[in-house]
Amino acid sequence: MDGQKMSSKRSAAPAAAASDRGVVTRRASRKGTVPPRVETGAERLVRCMEAHGVEYIFGLSGGAAMPIFDALVDSKIKLILTRHEQGASHMADGYARATGKPGVVLVTSGPGATNTVTGLLTALMDSVPMIVLTGQTPTFNLGKDAFQEADVTGITYPVVKHSYLVTKVNDIPRVVDEAFYLASTGRPGPILIDLPKDVTSAPCTAPDHDGVRIPGYVVPGRADTDVLEAAAAAITKSKRPVLYVGHGAVISGAGAAIAQLSEKLQAPVVNTLLGKGAVDETGPMHLGMLGMHGTAYANKAVEACDLIMAIGARWDDRITGRISEFCANATRIHIDVDPAEFNKTVTSHVQLLGDARLVVEDLLPLVGRLDTKPWLAQCAAWRKAYPLHYPTRGKALRAQHVLDRVNTLTDGKALFTTDVGQHQMWAAQFIRTRANRMWLSSGGAGTMGYGFPSAIGAQFAKPKTPVWCVVGDGGFQMTMCELATAAIHKLPVKVLIINNNYLGMVRQWQELFFDNRLSGVDLEGNPDFVKLARAYGVKGFYIRKPSDVDRVIKQAIKYNDGPCVIEAVVVKEDNVFPMIPAGAGYREMLIERPKGKLEKPEGST
Amino acid sequence: MTGTNHIPALGVTANTLHTVSIITNDHPGVLVRIALVFARRGYNIESLAVSPGAREGFARMTITSRGDAQNTEQILKQLKKLIDVVYITDHRDKAPVEVEIALVKLRAARAARTDILRIVDNFESQVVDDEEDTLMLRLTGTSAELDDCLGALRPYGVEELIRSGKIVMDSGASNFTHLLGGAS
Asked: Percentages helix, strand, coil for chain A, rounded to the nearest 5?
C-alpha cells in the first residue's frame, strides 16, 4: 500500500461515454440502481486476459496495481498470491514451460516490478513466453520520484523480448493482443506491460481489437527448399552424424520428427540441458546430455562426429567449450527460428531458418539411411566404457544415488524442475526425461531460486502430473517463502532438497581450480528443512543414509495431500563428473577427479 | 569442410566504419533499445541522426559505428530482432547518397579571415554569423569532405563544433515501403 488516499475513479467515470461494449457487465452494477458505467482500463485488461485463455495470474499486490487487483475479484482468472515477486515470475515461467502457453505475472510498481527482473532474465535467456504486468505511478507523476516509482521499462529493456509503457487507456486491448502474440510466436520470450494507475483507472472505450499487425516482425515457418536440399546433401555424405537437440525442439514440439530422423538416418541424438525430453532419453539412439557436465559418451561422440546438426540449439558456451576446437572438422548444420543465432558463436555451413518441427519434417523425405554401423558401434562402446557412475559402497549418502532412485521409482511419469548447481547437473544426468515439457530448468541464466516456484507453476498447469522439484540447500533458501503458496493450494509438489551444506558447484571449482581455498561457499546456519516445512504445515521427510532412500521416495510418491519436503543430507564434498572445464576443449574432459592441480579455466564460471 | 568455426572476440579488429539505415516505430524508448544493442557489446555509436520518416508513425535513423564485419553483422541481426525495428540495411556494399552538415565557430581575427574564407571556398559553405572576434560557418558535404574542411580550419582555432551526423539514402527504387503497410 502506498499510504496515500486512493481516489475513486469509479464514481467519476462518465456514464454518458458508455458504448455497448464498454458497459460493465458486472452483476453488482446490473442489480443495483447505479446507471451502467464504462469499464475501467483494469477491467478491460482482465477481460482481454480472459479472452486469451489465461487461467492463472501469479502476483503480489501493491498500491499502483490496485485497480487491476480489484478487477480480478470478478474474474474467472485465478489469482495466485505469492510471497515474493521473484516467486511469481518463476511460477509463471514454470506454468509456461509446462504448457507452452504464456504465463502471466501481476505486480506493483517500484520494488514489486524490480523483483521480477531475475524472472524476466530467466525467461528471456530460455525463450519462455511470459507476460509481466507491472503497476506504475500515475502518468502525471512519471519521472517525479513518486512513491514506489521506478523506471521499469528502462530497467528491463535488456531482459525483455519487448515491452510497453501504456499511457492511453484505449491502447490496452491492442497492447495485450500484441503482447500475447509476441510472447508466444517466433522465438518466445517475456513481454512487460507497465500500467500507470491513472490509465488502469480511466474509462476504456476502445472497440474490440482484432488482428495483430507488427510491421517488420516475421515469424519464420518452413525453411527454404534450396537450403533444405543443401542440408540433405551434407547429411548424405556423413558417416558419423550427431543430432544436437536444444530447447527450440521442445518449444516447437519437434521431438517426434527428430526421433524419426534419427531412426531413418541411424544417427545418434544428444541434447542440451533444456533439450531434455524433446526426444525420449531412454531410447537406444540417445546418448544423453552433451557439454560441460554431459555424459562422457555423448561428448566423445560430439568430439569425433563428422556432422553435427543443431536443432533449436544455440551453441552455448556450456556446450562448446573452447570454440576454436569445437567440431572444427565436422560439417555444422544449424536449425533455428532466430536468425541472430546463426554464426553468433560457432559458424555453420548450412543455416536453416524456420520452426524446428517444420524444418525437420521437411528434411525427412530428402534423406535416407546412412552407413553408420561402425559409428553406432563406436558410440555403444563409449557408452559401455564410460557409464555414469557413483560409489555405491559405504554409508555415505550420495545425491546421485537419491536421484537415480527417484528416476527409477517415478518411472518417467513425473515432471521435474531443478534449481541451479551440482544437484541440477546430477539430476540432468540421472533423471532420464522421456516426454516433452517434463523437464524445467534454468539454463541460460542459471537462476538459483528458480526450481521451487517453477514447480508450483508447473503443478498448477498440470494438476494430475506428479511434479518433483530438485533443489540444493542454497537455491531453495532463495525462494522458500513460497512454501506458504504451495501449502495453501495443497499442491502435491515434492521438494527434494539435496543438502550438502555448501554452495556445492562453486566449492567444486574452488577445489579443482583454486587450490581448495574455500570462499563464500559454506552454508553454515542452514535451517532444519523438515522442521521448517512443518512450520508451514508442510509434510517433511529426512533421507540420512542410503537405506532410507527407497522407503522415503515411495512415501513421498504416495503422499498427495499437499506439498512435501524431502531433505536428503548428502556427503558434503562430492564433485560432478564428467566435466569439461569452462573454455577447455572436449579432449580435456575430466571423467573423474584429477590427481594434480588444474589450470584456472579460460571460460566464465 | 574444415577451417575456422568461430567468431573473433568483440573489439579485436574494430576498425571498419559501418553505416546503417534503420526504419523504426516512432515512439518513446526506441532509441534506448537501439543504443543498448551497441553498448552491451562495447561498441560506440559514432554518429546518429534521427528524424520522422516519410510515413507517419515511423522514424528513420542513420547510424555509423566502427567494428569488424562479423561483429557488425551480429549487431545488425540483434537490431533487426528488436520489435520496434521494422527494417534495417547496411550500406557497406552500396554507394548511397550521403550528406552531413556542420556548424563551426572559429576564433577569427580580422587577419585570419581571408585565409579561412579561402579554405572554405573549396567546400559547400556559408558564413552564418559574423561577429567581431568569431565567425560561424555552415558546412555541407559528405562526412569525409567535412573532415577535410575541419582539419584545414583547426589551426585557426575551433571554438565550437556540432555535426549533424551522416544521413544517407540509397538511390533507386525503395525496397522497404511495403513493410510499413497502410496508406502512404
From this structure: 40, 15, 45
Do B112 and B61 touch, CB atoms closer than 8 A?
no
CATH architecture of the region A225-385: 3-Layer(aba) Sandwich (3.40)
Which three cell numbers mark B29?
524508448
Instruction: Tell me the chain B residues in contact with residue A347 when contact means C-beta distances shorter than 8 Å.
Output: 4-7
Q: Is A148 a catalytic residue?
A: yes
- pLDDT tens per residue across span A350-383: 999 999 999 999 999 999 999 999 999 999 999 9
Give me the phi and psi of A82, to 5 degrees please.
-95, 180
Encode pLDDT of B153-183 as tens digits.
999 999 999 999 999 999 988 888 888 876 4
CA dihedral A284, A288, A290, A294 (to 10 degrees): -130
Superfamily of domain B17-93: ACT domain (3.30.70.260)
- 3-state SS assignment for residue A605: coil
Q: How many CB atoms lie within 10 A of CB B184?
A: 8
Total number of residues shown for chain B: 184
Neighbouring residues of A309: CB distance < 8 A, sequence distance ≥ 6: A231, A235, A241, A242, A243, A244, A332, A333, A334, A335
User: Identical fold at A9-201 and A399-577?
Assistant: yes
Q: How is residue B6 annotated by DSSP?
A: B
Assembly ipTM: 0.90
Give the C-alpha separation, A453 to A88, whole Å: 7
Domains B17-93 and B97-167 alike in fold? yes
Cα–Cα distance for residue pair A493/A594, rounded to 1 Å: 38
Q: Tell me whether residue A529 is one of the annotated catalytic residues.
A: no
Question: In chain B, which residues have their Cβ closer than 8 Å to the Cβ of A351?
Answer: none
CA A22 to chain centre: 37
Q: Within 13 Å and on the Cβ side, how many CA atoms surround A361?
A: 13
> Which is it for strands B97-107 and B167-169: parallel, antiparallel or unpaired?
antiparallel
CA distance A570 to A396: 7
CATH H superfamily, domain A9-201: Thiamin diphosphate (ThDP)-binding fold, Pyr/PP domains (3.40.50.970)
Annotated catalytic, A505? yes
Run of H or E residues at A70: helix A66-72
Beta carbons of A347 and B86 less than 8 Å apart: no
Amino acid at site A273:
L
> Which positions in chain B touch A324 (Cβ < 8 Å)?
4-6
Model pLDDT for residues A462-488, shown as the tens digit of each residue: 999 999 999 999 999 999 999 999 999
Q: Compare all CA atoms of chain B with the CA of A179 and give the residue at the minimum distance.
A: B83
Please give the grid coordinates belonging to residue A110.
Answer: 517500484
Strands (E), A465-550: 467-472, 494-499, 539-543
* Domain boundaries A399-577, CATH class: alpha beta
